[in-house]
Design brief:
Layout lengths: L4 H10 L2 E4 L18 E5 L12 E5 L5 E3 L5 E11 L10 H5 L2 E2 L12 E10 L3 E3 L7
Antiparallel strand pairs: 1-5, 2-3, 2-5, 4-8, 5-7, 6-7
Length: 138
């Protein structure tokens, strides 16, 4: 079941859903908009090994933005920390993000009941596109 905005607020009041920071203007009719954090990571090697610990490089998104490139997987994080104690959380990209050709998760769009953390984003794009820390992403 997808929760309505009213039900999301009820669950927040009960403490079964926590969103920090919570901004009322980010609450939709059946969703809550999350935003891109200020750090990204990429793999050092172009060829990855599924049995190895592949080395990543972290960097901060510059104030004037960062140009994503096709063919590169970027690991990001949401600004928002969330907890869901009675519900299965889902993360989907915003349609405005999709129209730019940006995907925000490869396979991990569903969390588990009891999930307590920021969301890891598996970001890829189909064409070069400039992104900014704090932009709505999901």
């Amino acid at each position: 079941m997808i929760l309505s905005d009213k039900r999301i607020l009820e669950e927040i009041d009960k403490g079964t859903i926590i969103i920090e920071p919570f901004k009322p203007e980010c609450l939709g009719t059946n969703s809550y908009d999350v935003h891109l954090g200020k750090y990204l990571a990429t793999y050092k090697d172009r060829v990855l090994d599924a049995k190895a610990h592949n080395t990543i490089e972290h960097f901060e998104i510059p104030k004037d933005g960062f140009m994503l490139q096709p063919g590169t997987l970027y690991l990001g994080v949401t600004v928002e920390y969330t907890e869901t104690h009675s519900h299965v959380p889902f993360l989907e990209g915003k349609s405005s993000t999709g129209r730019l050709g940006i995907d925000i998760h490869a396979t991990a769009g569903k969390g588990d009941v009891g999930f307590c953390n920021t969301w890891t984003l598996e970001i890829s794009c189909v064409q070069p596109v400039k992104i900014y820390a704090g932009m709505p992403i999901g």
